[in-house]
Amino acid sequence: GDVAVLVPAAGAGVRLGGGGPKALRHLGGEPMLVHAVRRVAAAPSVSAIVVAAPPSEVDAVRSLLAPLAPVIVVAGGAERQESVAAALAAVPEGPDIILVHDAARALAPPSLVESVAAAVRAGSAAVIPVLPVVDTVKEVGADEVVLGTVDRSALRAVQTPQGFRRSVLAAAHASAADSLTDDAGLVEKQGYR
Ligand code: C5P
Known about the structure:
6 helices; Spore Coat Polysaccharide Biosynthesis Protein SpsA, Chain A; alpha/beta; 12 strands; transferase; two-stranded antiparallel ribbon; binds cytidine-5'-monophosphate; 2-C-methyl-D-erythritol 4-phosphate cytidylyltransferase; isoprene biosynthesis; Nucleotide-diphossugar_trans
């Protein structure tokens, strides 16, 4: 395989509410991270998986994932971007394509991993999976007063895995200043299509 997948899983789960790190919360009897890694490992192009775990859970996550696939586990950081950077630094030499996949997106199928990887292999520097926005979206001002209705036909909700040529993602992270919620945002700022 020519693909390495980074799995940021170090979030504290604050928005989700009490009960510990989101990636380790259960869905159908298993941690979301287990669901996510099992599906990533089932994609034939994937030759390396690097998980960024909550720093206090690195050993536990290693034991949790060892039965599924050979997985490298590193300690994540305070921000998602730091967790991705830590995982990126641990990728072995070899893979030319790097995917970044949120552990919280536990049910993304192996076929999505393959199609994102295939688009990068076909020549794109950066590729993201998206869905059309189906809800009506309002722009609001102070006091939640509606300013207008956004044209949703041009909007897309962004998912993961996001795929990159390795050199492109490495350069984006090396020059990253402000913290963004997704890796494609860093790459956009570098001017890549
Ligand atoms: O909080 P958010 O939905 O942006 O988190 C997306 C993914 O990034 C989750 O899988 C979460 O565990 C991970 N994350 C991380 N390190 C952080 C914050 C979030 O690995 N410091």
